[in-house]
Write a structure and sequence with these properties.
Blueprint lengths: L2 H31 E7 L3 H12 L8 E10 L5 E12 L2 E14 L3 E11 L5 H10 L3 E11 L5 E11 L4 E6 L5
Antiparallel strand pairs: 1-2, 2-5, 3-4, 3-6, 4-5, 6-7, 7-8
Length: 180
């Protein structure tokens, strides 16, 4: 190979490696800059209403539990929320799911409320949930991901984990980013 060809190939290789490294560094910074917090989780009345519908033989297909998430973007990049995929557990049993495909813009250096609804699963044991709720000992866990896109080539998944009781007292919350 000619010396000029080697120089050109070496230059392209160096630019490619630097570009890939810059991409992954930006992804890591972006992931740390987006934070998710639960906004309103006051499900006590809604859960007891669902148990009442369930015990009377009604269908829960049109019944859901609302969840308001606060998304905080501390980065200098506008981000588009593409998908929310979360599971709701009560005392370790899967009782509800959120799986949505939509777009919501999260502006740079901004805070946005994202409203989603948990739909009950077919085999959710609401009788046991109602009894536990009346005794005041029901703990919930939300676990899932929020998919965000900063550009055509930059898609990140923000993990979310929260444990709380039906009255909305959050005991622990972990998000993919830093909520400072």
């Amino acid at each position: 190979m000619k010396k000029q060809t080697k120089v050109v190939l070496g230059l392209f290789l160096t630019i490619g490696v630097v570009g890939v490294a810059a991409y992954f560094i930006r992804q890591a910074k972006l992931l740390k800059s987006i934070c998710v917090k639960a906004g309103n989780i006051d499900w006590e009345g809604a859960l007891l209403e669902a148990v009442g519908v369930y015990t009377s033989g009604g269908s829960l297909t049109d019944f859901s539990l609302p969840l308001n998430l606060t998304l905080i973007n501390n980065s200098n990049s506008e981000v588009t929320i593409k998908k929310v995929d979360m599971d709701l557990y009560a005392e370790g049993d899967l009782i509800g799911q959120v799986s949505t495909d939509f777009e919501q813009i999260l502006g740079k250096k901004s805070e946005t409320i994202l409203n989603v609804d948990f739909d009950f699963t077919q085999d959710a044991n609401l009788l046991a949930l109602g009894a536990a709720e009346l005794l005041g000992s029901l703990d919930f866990t939300i676990r899932g991901t929020i998919t965000a896109e900063a550009s055509v080539f930059e898609t990140i998944e923000i993990t979310y984990l929260s444990t709380f009781n039906a009255a909305g007292l959050i005991s622990s919350e972990k998000s993919g980013g830093d909520c400072k």
